[in-house]
Amino acid sequence: MRSVRLPAFSMQASFGTSAATWVLLQQVIVRGLVAVKFLAIGRILGPAAIGSVSVALLAVAIAESLSDTGLAQAVIQGRETPSRAELGAVWTTLAARGAFVGLLLVALAPLMQSQFHLGGSLLLLQLAAALPLIRGIASPTYFVVQRERRFQHIAGVEISAAFADCTIGLVLALAGAGAYSVLIGMVFGEALKSTLTWATMQPRPPLKLSWAGIGHYIGFSRWIWASSVVNLVLNQFDKIVVGKLLGPAQLGAYQMSSRLAQMLLADAAIAMSQYLFPTFSAQHRHDPHTAARVFKLYLIAATAGLAVIVVVLRMVAAPLFSLVLGAAWMSAVPLFKIFVINMAIGALIAVLVSYLRAVGDARAATQASVMQMIVLFAVVPPATHYWGVTGIAWGMTAGLGTAALWMLYRTIRVS
User: Fold this and answer.
1) Does residue 74 have a pLDDT over 60?
2) Comparing 3-12, 125-134, 303-312, 350-359, which segment has the lowest mean pLDDT?
3) How many alpha carbons fall within 13 Å on the CB side of residue 172?
4) Which candidate, 374, 365, 362, places its Cα nearest to that of 398?
């Protein structure tokens, strides 16, 4: 009789608590639900409504980037597991940050409404302020779970939150809630996620205000904060320009083409970085040479796969938009063809950043972002003059390429 131990062992290993299978499963389901939600709601509501939501989420992204503490990455990368007291200090910091960002967004909502031509959308902008508050009160034990590579647990939490977000958003959109359906779904999803971090993850940090005990994280986290501020300019500059100059309808078309390209390319790498960062960190702590070898294999595989996907997506861009979103969105096709290139480069950058942060070189990612910003400011003005909104997209390509090359050079130096 033939032995079946090897297949049984392989299956067990593939679905072990720390297996990459859970990250991939989470990626497929969560990103699939997000895609269904935004594409379906985009088809129902049209570019103008999506543009209004984009402005609200843009405000959240700006505020969160400017106040990024970098503590999540510092907890994951640190050599020692944080104590309950340290987790309590992390929670205090993140909760205070969430409350500050939420109040700031409520105060700035009237200004955002006037600057981005959003008549009658004040409540929509104020509703977005709930997102950073809910995220801030989540249990920081979530970062410990990431550090310990308990990807099965993380997948369960993320999939549950995404399902709630998608279901509620679609139901409200079909019921006529308009642009509010997107944000209300996100609020419910984030609330469920924060609840699950407290209900299912141990150890629970003490619920008391304390900032003591996390000073040793600051040296690493300051580079994360600096990188977030620079990335704020890089990732939101184009959207601010389009929204300010052209209004919500044009911003909706620009944002949807970017979002669709991100769903098909960059999201997979960004989600995979949830596995790569703690994995590279653990391997580097035990054997730096093994970590460097594994990183090179991931990078080669990612480059080859992304090149093929880019070629295919550019070929099928027009029928894809016609089928999925309808005739109202066809003006976004030329932008989509540029964004698939940008998102492919962004996917490679996600792999590079995971490794550089894992080996303690968070500075390299910040330096790359600064270079990208310099290129962007140098290239976008003339490109916009000659090619309009597509010039902005091509300017992003030049900046992303520069950043990727610099980080690749730094990984070669530390390997």
Assistant:
1) yes
2) 3-12
3) 20
4) 374
Question: What is the C-alpha separation between 257 and 329, in angstroms, rounded?
Answer: 9
Rounded CA separation 78/276 (Å): 15
Q: How many C-beta atoms surround the C-beta of residue 363 within 10 A?
A: 16
- Phi, then psi, of 214 in degrees rounded to 5: -120, 15
CA distance 282 to 2: 37
Please state, in angstroms and as integers, the Cα–Cα distance from residue 245 to each residue in 34, 242, 250, following that order. Answer: 28, 5, 9
Burial of 360 (0-12, 13-18, 19+ CB in 10 A): middle
Scanning the structure block, which residue is given the tokens 């009789």? 1
Cβ pair 272, 23 in contact under 8 A = yes
Q: Tokens for 282, please give them.
A: 């653990």
In the numeric block, the tokens 């184009």 are attached to: 238
More confident residue, 148 or 198: 198
- Say which residue the tokens 């940090």 belong to: 205
Residue 60 and residue 189 in contact, taking contact as beta carbons nearer than 8 Å: no
How many other CB atoms are found less than 10 A from the CB of residue 247? 15
Which residue is it, tokens 């990455």?
Answer: 73
- Residues 141-190 have pLDDT tens digits of 999 998 888 889 999 999 999 999 999 999 999 998 888 998 999 999 99
Residue 369 class from Cβ within 10 Å (0-12 exposed, 13-18 middle, 19+ buried)? buried
Tell me if residue 56 falls in helix, strand or coil: helix
Distance in angstroms (rounded) separating the CA atoms of residues 358 and 290: 13
User: How far is 193 from 335, CA to CA, in rounded Å?
Assistant: 34
Q: Are 204 and 165 in contact (CB under 8 A)?
A: no
User: Rounded to 5 degrees, what angle do the CA atoms 47, 51, 52 make?
Assistant: 125
Q: What's at 320, amino acid-wise?
A: L
Tokens matching residue 157: 């939490």
Q: Cα–chain-centroid distance for residue 238?
A: 17
